[in-house]
Design brief:
- The chain is built from nine helices and six strands.
- The protein has about 250 residues and is of the alpha/beta class.
- It has one domain: 3-Layer(aba) Sandwich (Rossmann fold).
- Helix 3 links the parallel strand 2 and strand 3.
- Helix 4 packs across helix 5.
- It is globular, with a radius of gyration of 18 Å.
- The protein starts with 7 loop residues before the first strand and ends in a 17-residue tail after the last helix.
Amino acid sequence: MTPRWPERLWIVRHGQSAGNVARDLAHEQGHHRIALSGRDVDVPLSELGRQQALALGHWFARGEEGARPNVILASPYLRACATAELFREGGGAVPRARIHLDERLREKEFGILDGWTTAGIRAEMPEQAEFRQMLGKFYHRPPGGESWCDVIFRLRSLLDTVGLHYGGCRVMIVAHQVVVLCMRYIIEGMTEAEILAIDAEKDVANCGVTEYAFAETEDGAGEMQLVAYNVTAPMKAEATPVTRAPDPIVASRG
């Protein structure tokens, strides 16, 4: 019988993007808008982000994880696709491993708040800042955007697909910060308070690795158990700077 879970599952945030850099600069200078044009889906990696993705590939190629993925799933956003491709180029996956793009892994959608800084939201759309303060980031859905619950809903469907098609495989998922956190929420059966406490401790690092391994259970169903969270050793091994984008009122372009 085909296993219902992967043998190993790694969930990785994409490398530093041009959007991360622009957002940090906008916040430092107190601007209301992030200096980017075009669609969020088309934001590329920064040069440092490319180095981080290659360092991640080299880490797996050296056997530091004990195995390499034979399946790669990625968000269709350019920064995630490029991270997956550079990871594979760096030897991180088994030869001829395909990269499967899945729109359910896309970035959380921010609707009318996309591209605004914390200061900009408070100045230009104070009612949205108040709604988020009242509802909390887990449930707040900006007009035209998504809440964390909306992201979780689509990720539950994604995990059903992973179990159906990739049971027993070694799977890597390359996506975004909120996706990493929401996957933990689902796999580990967390509460809102538990996942938000983890989120508050530290931002998910660019190319930070979260790992799960399959374990047998008494009922015979088995489960995925957390092995490591937000590991940055691959970058440190090559003296590549570690970056973590903050999560302001609107964590756009992340």
